[in-house]
UniProtKB/TrEMBL annotation:
Residues 13-94 form the Carboxymuconolactone decarboxylase-like domain. It holds the Pfam family CMD. This is Alkyl hydroperoxide reductase AhpD. InterPro entries: AhpD-like (IPR029032), AhpD_core (IPR004675), CMD-like (IPR003779). It comes from the Bacteria.
Length: 152
């Protein structure tokens, strides 16, 4: 696949600065990086964002994530590999990514389960990170950004 244009966020310097601020904000609230990485990967899988799935899985593996967990993120409900907080965050990521699929995009039971495991500031960071991931996914899908070919 060939990209339609260079990634728009890279072409507009102010966008890069804004994205860096979003990243910093989401990663400064005390949410374990594993949780943020999982929601990023799951939202990117749902949206079919090849560069984000590729880079997300590679980053998780580099930080020590097991193949069992990496390979089963799409079917996390049917595996024993994820903690209750991770499951709550993954469910929130799925619902917040698939907003148009139901009349109540994020039902109370999904939110309430996440709220059992995360403080308000942490929930804010998770929601912000899901939104940021969806932002990147839409840019990459619209412009047909390919996954990198040379990871050497």
């Amino acid at each position: 696949m060939e990209a339609r244009i260079t990634n728009p966020a890279g072409l507009l310097p102010d966008a890069v600065q804004a994205v860096n601020l979003l990243y910093k904000a989401a990663h400064s609230a005390g949410v374990p990086s594993t949780i943020l990485e999982l929601v990023h990967l799951r939202a990117s899988q749902i949206n079919g964002c090849s560069p984000c799935v590729d880079s997300g899985a590679r980053a998780m593996r580099k930080s020590g994530e097991s193949d069992d967990r990496l390979f089963t993120v799409p079917v996390w409900r049917e595996t024993p590999y994820f903690t209750e907080p991770e499951r709550a965050a993954l469910a929130l990521a799925e619902y917040a990514t698939r907003l148009a699929d139901r009349p109540d995009p994020v039902p109370d039971e999904i939110w309430d389960e996440a709220a059992k495991h995360f403080a308000e500031k942490e929930l804010a960071a998770i929601v912000l990170w899901i939104a940021t991931t969806n932002f990147f996914n839409r840019i990459n899908a619209a412009t047909k950004q390919p996954a990198p070919q040379n990871w050497g």
